[in-house]
Amino acid sequence: MNKKVLLWLVLIFLVIDGALLVYKITKPSKKHPTPIHKEKPHYKYSVFLTSDDGPLVGSRYLHQIIKDYEVPFTLFLVGKPVNSDSRLKPYLINYKNNCYAMLGNHSYSHANFHYKKFYTNPKGVVQDFLKNEKILDINFSVARLPGRNVWVLDNNHTKGEPNALKAAILLNKEHNYKVFGWDYELRHNGKGKVLKSVKEHYKRIKELLKNGKTYTKNQIVILMHDQMFTNDLSSKELGELILLLQDDEEIKLKKIDKYKF
Ligand SMILES: [Zn+2]
User: Fold this and answer.
1) Do 124 and 132 meet the contact criterion of CB atoms below 8 Å apart?
2) Most CB contacts within 10 A, which of 9, 158, 181, 242?
3) Burial category of 177 from C-beta neighbours within 10 Å (exposed 0-12, middle 13-18, buried 19 and up)
4) How far does residue 17's CA lie from ligand 1's centre (Å)?
């Protein structure tokens, strides 16, 4: 074979190989939806998606959704389940490695689900949060109280049931935590189906923002729970809602540290 032919063969090989590589990179994957990333220079509303109680079994799905849709998310974590069940550890590691997620504190014990008793001892509540911070190695001072919709962002931004509020104020004053409640909740029917249609949720979120019915104007904090996402159906529903929000020129999705007050 003369040198010229050989050179041509090498060139052809390189072109085909390059084309295959480009195809491989750009080929849309069936499993991964395409996130909508718009510039939105004139957006009006900030939307904060948050989920509580992870890491639990549903965290596996939620982690994947957050990654697939490249969507800013805030996860308020509880330490006790993961500390007593090593099968949950990989979900915690996933969350820690998920660059779209911000990890916040939702207490160690989740009040053992006895909220009234829990909040009669505000100092005990603070200790429970500090224990969680240490065990899960949480680096951001953002928190949500278990079982109570309480806000304490600073001295002038406080709201909620008086006993729980005392604990939240301590967390804020002594440990610099910002405590976030929520404006709207996505619920499920216990069988992994999100209640109401995705479009209804989207409509309601826009209404609350337009009518100024949120804790602070033009911002909305949405609550959901990791345990809602234990199957592909509920994951798909959340994905649809995320796409609607990402596509909306008026809305920008953000992590909770971007909340303004
Ligand atoms: Zn909770």
Assistant:
1) no
2) 242
3) buried
4) 51
**CATH class of the 45-258 domain in this structure:** alpha beta
16: amino acid identity, one letter: I
What are the residues facing 154 on neighbouring strands?
157
Residues in contact with 45: Cβ distance below 8 Å, sequence separation at least 6, in sequence order: 209, 218, 219, 220, 250, 251, 252
CA of 52 to the centre of ligand 1 (A): 5
Distance 69 CA to ligand 1 centre (A): 24
Residue 10 confidence (pLDDT): 66
Contact 103, 164 (CB under 8 A): no
Cα of 59 to ligand 1 centre, how many Å? 14
Domain ranges in the chain are 45-258
CA–centroid distance, residue 146 to ligand 1 (Å):
5
For ligand 1, the distance from its centroid to the CA atom of residue 53, given in whole angstroms, is: 5
